[in-house]
Fold this sequence. Notes:
The chain is of the alpha+beta class. 39% of the residues lie in helices and 19% in strands. It is built from 6 helices and 4 strands; from the N terminus they run ααββαααββα. A 4-stranded antiparallel beta sheet has the order 1-4-3-2.
Amino acid sequence: xxxxxxxxxxxxxATSDKVDKWLNNQMMVNGKDDGLDGWFTPDxxxxxxxxxxxxxxxxxxxxxxxxxxxxxxxxxINLPQEKKDLIPGDDNLFLLSGTLKTGEVTVxxxxxxxCRFAQKVACDWWDNAEADVLEExxxxxxxxxxx
Length: 147
């Protein structure tokens, strides 16, 4: 029997899936979609929720992008102009994405990339998820193939 050789792409995909699941589990609590909202308070984090409360069916995870990347997103389009103006155009953004109860996939929340929660997810949660995946696979990082 040959041992499975895992690639860095497979590790990245599995890690991403695990972080996405953690984000979803934290966001969706007791039938509501506000479990992460405390991390997205404008006065404290320079970010805010884009989707209306209790409209999110599932969180799909996060990515880093710019304001320009969300200009055609339904949640951004539906914001009042004064809220659109609060989103910086000259900074990298941490974006949560998800599926609304209407079936539309959209950006649900945003923060500046350097905010504490963005760094917590991208660094701490990512590292923990990667360690969990390696443990589940029964391999060490040095055994992962470059691709």
